[in-house]
Amino acid sequence: NMSEKQPTEVAAEAAPVTSSPLSTDGETMNGQPLERFASCFEKSARRWEMVVYPALFAFCVLSIYGFYMIYHLTQDMSHIARNIQVISTSIDPYMGPHMASMVDGIENMSSNVQVMTRNLNAIDGNMEAITVSMEDMRGSMQQITGHTQTLEPMMASMVNLDQSTQHMANSTFHMTREMGSMNRGMSPRGMFSRFSPF
After folding, report:
1. What's the predicted TM-score (pTM) here?
2. 7 with 35: CB under 8 angstroms?
């Protein structure tokens, strides 16, 4: 591994092999950039190792957990499917007639609701007619009240007329008595009875 090698070894491998003194000076001059490159590469590799290895570990853990969850989910779905099949087979013979009767009941209820709606509309119209009639009746009662107020003087006059009629009846009765007594006095028998001693 290149990151595990020492900087001097990398520099020795990268430098050309010569025996002249000039090449030795060139090797020492070119060795400093290579050492810096090697140290920078090693630092960057360590930084990436600190990021990549935990990420790989977390990915492995999440993958295992996801596989575990998917496995249990498939088992639960298979249990649910079996339970639904058992429920459908146990209820299916009785569900059909009950559903049919329930549909019939819902249809009857819908028709009854429509009839009730029509009846309520008719009641609404009748209530409006009753309201109009009550308003007319109120106007008639007001007119009757006005007429009653005008009839009060007539009633007083009728009372006076009744009293006058009673007086006239009494006077007529007295006149009848007087006429009867005068009739008896003016009859022949009455005249002879006054002269007879007996």
Report:
1. 0.28
2. yes
